Amino acid sequence: MAKSIKIIEIEIENYRQYHGKQLVKFPDRSEGFSVIIGDNGAGKSNILNAINWCFYQTEPHQKKNKGKYIINQQYIEDLENGKTGTMSVKVKIKIDDTEYHISRILTITKNEFQYETRLDGKALEIENVDGYLLPRGTDVQQSQSTFEIMKKDKHESNFFPIEGRAPTKMNEILPEILSPYFLLDGEYLENFWDDLSRVKIGVEQISQLNLLAISSEHLSEFKTSIPKIGSRNIDSLTTEINTLEYWEHSCDKDGNEAWSKEMRYNYDPEVHKNENYHLSGTRRIKELEEDIKRMKSRLTEISQAFARSNIQIVTELNSKESKLKDRFEDGEPKLKDYRKKFINSQISNGPILFLKNTFQTTVEKVDALRIKGDLPYDAKMIFTQDLLELNKCICHSDLTSKLDAKNKETNQFRKNVEDVRDQMENDRGLDYALEMANYFKNLILNDPEQFVSDNFEKMENEHTKIKKNIKNISEELGEVRRKLQNVGVADIEDLTEDHKYVLNTMTESLKTIDKINQIIKDNRRMTGELRIKQNKLMKQDDRAKKIAFEQNVWLRISDVMDKALSSVKEEIRSQVQEKTFQIFIESMYKKKTWDRFTIDENYSAELFDANYIPTLGSLSAGEKLFLALSFISALKDITGYKFPLVIDTPLGRVSAKPRYLLSKALPKFLPDEQVLFLATDTEFISPLTDWDKDDPNGEGLPEISFAQLLEKSIKMNYWSIRHAIDAETATIQNYIPSWEKKHAA
Amino acid sequence: MLLDDINFPDVKYGTKNKEDYRDLTEAEWSPFFGHHYWEVFIFSMSYAYAKGLVPKSVPGVGNMPANVFQQPTRDLMRSLAIDHTKDLNILKDTNAYVKICEEFAYVGFDEVLKRIKDNPSEVPVEDILFNMIKEVHTEQN
What average pLDDT does range A14-34 have in this prediction? Predict the structure, then answer.
């Protein structure tokens, strides 16, 4: 029977960011859509988690909760040691005319917190207490949490506790398996088509076809379990038939489900019942077909990844990288050599520059002596010696030697000249100063600027040039390597390996299917032959005749059920597929791009273009989200099952044009459904400005927000999450968007 | 050739500096890596003189043989001594002018060593001495 479900209110108290009691009462669908605006990390996904935790004690959206405890940090820190505190989520829902008050409360006792000492200070130790991440020193009371469901029927004024186990009742009211169909997040919708089970659950569970399917499975058991009759021949034939039919249904000799030891392809515990394949028969074929579909998706992903990697670009970049690496490797020693040369010049020429002024002094002193004629002393000495040899001074004095008896010079003139000559012998060493002065002049003094330029400035410039060149090469090399990483060169080997593996696994799986199908065909032929034999024998035995009659009755009922199930399934499947495509096409702008949407009997979905080429794998994020929403809308429409939609970050990766179309499509295709968006300011409230991306011809689409676009056809109700990041405290408050404020003013 | 060439003495750089001289010429972080003691000595000496540092007498020994000081290097030493004494006749007293040079080198070495050891890691090794040269050059102008 179709149900109409509505969320009346949510009360969150001290759960994760939410400090104190936060109550949000949702309006009727007739009063429009609702939206809670919050920054990234403010606590939007934790509203989804809060509902899930309340209903099923699970928190599926854990991306941003890593290392954080479930109870509000501020609250638990403020709690006195030894005191008990509570955290709770209470949700009031209405199913048809009955209201349910569902509450889950966690009670804790706070003891002395324990800290661990780290290099950067003290940090609170966190541990897992009864399945909850809490500060060490916290005890969970009353075995995990208290879960209670109260009920109020149409004509009652009070809520009364329902009878029976609350979790079981919860699953009757709103099966957990269906929660992803009403508690949605944008990412889930985008990836909706990656998993066959989602389509199957959608079609079978929401339409409640699963009940029929379960009945049919039970009947199949009767159909195949022929009891022992007592006749050895008949019983032996029965055993043979059973063995063959059990093989087809992957059962062991006792009729129990049998599993192989072979692992399923990319086993996912959330999706697959068992990590291994069934042992044989149709069940194994079904699993193999499901996995082949996933393998095909993976191959599409791999080819897309290859396309992103772009082999040609990678090849070009590789060649560029190799050339740059060579240039870099050539340049490095060149730079090293030049650096050495530059330093050598500093060590040998630095002192020359430092002593430039002393050279100047030396030159001046030498020049003064030279001008005076005192230098070179060598010349002066020769001249004096010449005077002594000529025995005549330039002043015409007689310099002839006059020695006494002791051989001592008595001519005072000559003696004076000889003293001058001997003095100059001492000063001869100073003659080198002339050479030195010339050396200094040539070295630096004649052109000090040239000296500085040749030995320092030019070298510095050349050194800087080489260094800059190497730096440029290094930067260019870094850039090329970054590009290579971005185009996925690092993953190419992995992708190739993965591609090979998937392809091999797929080929093997196809071969296995063929082999199993052949065996099934042979088994069925053999079963037919065995049944004929069995029937012949049974006709000869009264007891057997009676059993055979009963068996035939079960067989017929089972066939009728199978046919009914298959026919209803077929009908719903075909209706859902048509309605999905109709909604999708009506709300999309590239109407002519697609030709049909199909869901085959294995619930494998595909969207074909006009050339009958599958396009599901290559849809944009926005298109995938559209198709998933179209599917959910179609399911609701066909099954009459009306449940609220809570959609977290619905437009995260959807660009302007699809947002515009979505704003028009949502009110139209969800006419009676309660919808709550959990969105960021940017995706919901900020004007859509990236039109150019989708609208190259500039059709003049309005630069207003998604919320304003929705407001054109439906009333909107706003709340916002206000949060302080440091204190980890958030509150939910009513919100008036800026345009409303202007309007009010 | 000067008459005093044969009298040129061994040159002292100071016992306490022995290890630092070795470090500066053997460690890769030093611009003097791979160079000789005498080059460190001449650079320190001329830097000290250009910066107007006050010479200090050199305690202890730590000698470099005379023959490592080639003529052009000796000319630098002589020129420093001439300027310091304002007398060309200092050239006639080899021991005296070498002593003057040792004293300047001794005081200059401390500065050079400090500049090298305190060099921030972001300043490349080739810029350590070059910055000292640029400083002096600016002061000279």
Answer: 89
- Over range A271-299, report the average pLDDT: 87
Residue of chain B whose alpha carbon sits nearest to that of A361: B83
Better pLDDT: B36 or A549: B36
Helix (H, G, I), strand (E, B), or coil: what is residue A156?
coil
pLDDT at A310: 67
Q: Does A436 sit within 8 Å of B79, measured CB to CB?
A: yes
Contact criterion met (CB < 8 Å) for B82 and A354: no
**Sign of the alpha-carbon torsion through A620, A621, A622, A625:** positive
Burial label for A191, CB within 10 Å (0-12, 13-18, 19+), is middle
Digit-coded pLDDT (tens) for A420-471: 777 776 677 777 888 899 999 999 999 999 999 999 999 999 999 998 999 8
Contacts of A318 (CB under 8 A, 6+ apart): A484, A489
ipTM of the complex as predicted: 0.97
Q: How far apart are CA A371 and CA A376, in angstroms?
A: 10
The answer as to whether A520 is a domain residue is: yes
Instruction: Please name the residues in contact with A458: beta carbons below 8 A apart, sequence gap of 6 or more.
Output: none
Q: Are residues A353 and A468 in the same domain?
A: yes
Region A506-513 average pLDDT: 92
Does A256 share its domain with A269?
yes
Number of domains in chain A: 2
Residue contacts between A and B (CB atoms, under 8 Å) = 108
Whether B3 and chain A come into contact, CB under 8 Å, resolves to yes
| Structural domain count of chain B | 1
Give the one of A351, A357, A463 whose C-beta lies nearest to B76's C-beta.
A351
Quick check: B75 and A439 CB within 8 A? yes
A358 and A423 in a single domain? The answer is yes
> Domain check: are A476 and A385 in the same one?
yes
Predicted confidence band of residue A652 (pLDDT cuts 50, 70, 90) = low
Q: Is residue A199 scored above 80 in pLDDT? A: no
Residues of A in contact with B1 (CB under 8 A): 432
**Which residues of chain A approach chain B closer than 8 Å at the C-beta?**
339-340, 342-344, 346-348, 350-359, 361-362, 365-366, 369, 426-430, 432-433, 436, 439-440, 452, 456, 460, 463
> Which residue in chain B has the smallest CA separation from A338?
B126
Is the minimum CB–CB distance between B52 and chain A shorter than 8 Å?
no
Q: Which domain holds residue A451?
A: 331-486
Q: Are A688 and A656 in contact (CB under 8 A)?
A: yes
Pair (A442, A472) in one structural domain: yes
